[in-house]
Amino acid sequence: MKSAVFNGVAACVGAVMLAGCGLSVREHRGYVIDEQLTSAVQVGVDNKQSVEKTLGEPSFTGTFDQNDWYYVARDTRAFAFRNPRVTDQTVIHVRFDPTGNVASVEQTDESLIAAINPSNDKTPTLGRSHGFFQELFNNIGTIRQPGLPGRQGQ
Prior knowledge:
Layout: H1 2-21, E1 24-30, H2 35-40, H3 48-55, E2 60-61, E3 68-79, E4 85-96, E5 102-108, H4 132-137
Antiparallel strand pairs: 1-3, 2-3, 3-4, 4-5
Keywords: Cell outer membrane, Membrane, Signal
Domain Outer membrane protein assembly factor BamE: 30-104
Protein name: Outer membrane protein assembly factor BamE
């Protein structure tokens, strides 16, 4: 009787644990896009101050040009313990001219996300390839020349 109860409890605990692994986690990160507000930004009419009042502070500004503002919204979904997968992404790029007026407003989606696959946890390099022992014993027997590092007194 005790064995049957124990087996039943173990089966219930196992079922709950498996159900927890099957949960999908959805998450939103970044800017919350309001289509009405983003369509209100007009080229040649708005400036940095009016865009900031309308859309708020940007997610980030351009690295090389502070006149590029980006508003990024990203939805992801993760299954159990796997890496999250992007399900939806919207980037609003507001470009300003040198005087601070809106020059262009562009909107892109997740199709521009680049997939980068590393190659076997190693970075390929050009040049000679040394083994462990070659690296370890490489300097044995080399003659130090004057002016080279490692020579004392000169």
